[in-house]
Amino acid sequence: MIDITNHPIDISKVMKECRDESAGATVLFSGSIRDHNEKGKVIGIYYEAYVKMAKNILMEIENEVLKKWDVKKFIAIHRIGNLKISEISVVVGVTTEHRRDAFEACKYTIDSIKDRTPIWKKELSESGSATWKNGLLPFHIKRNHYNENK
């Protein structure tokens, strides 16, 4: 199961969805909003995504994981919109027969999501400034930046 959502992510629901009687291991990764970055205090994060493309990339990642490891259950959910400190932004759940596969598949998944999925974050600082982080800027930001520099 994959999803991009505006709604809070329910960890207990993800854990229930990961249950499988033939599996001995479930690894759950949960990423949340922290209250600081390298420059100071953070009061929240705004996530923006190209949702259709992001879902397609998540499906590609899921297919890669299913080919490489013997996965019983796979869940990857990323939240978009305005998130407050401590709110969950991303969850990956992988259930396998043995723990090594579950850990490796989960790590591969979250690393791939961060590297490949068109989801961008804007950190909101205590000073009132906002900074886009991680990778390329969203298209509308690039377009506006380009027009301003003509």
Query: Shape, please?
Result: elongated
Taking the alpha carbons of the first and last residues, their distance comes to 44 Å
* Unreliably modeled segments: 142-150
Q: CATH superfamily membership, which one?
A: Molybdopterin biosynthesis MoaE subunit
Q: What series of H and E elements makes up the topology? A: EHEEEHEEEHEEH
Please provide the count of β strands: 9
Structural class: alpha+beta
Could you please say which CATH topology applies here? Answer: Aldehyde Oxidoreductase, domain 3
**On the 0-100 scale, what is the average pLDDT?**
90
Percent strand? 35-45%
Please give the largest β-sheet: 5 strands, antiparallel
CATH architecture: Alpha-Beta Complex
Portion of residues within helices: 25-40%
* CATH class descriptor name: Alpha Beta
Instruction: Quickly count the helices.
Output: 4
C-alpha-based Rg, rounded: 17 Å
The figure for the number of domains is 1
What characteristics describe this protein?
150 residues, alpha+beta, Aldehyde Oxidoreductase, domain 3, 5-stranded antiparallel sheet, 4-stranded mixed sheet, 4 helices, 36% helix, 38% strand, disordered C terminus
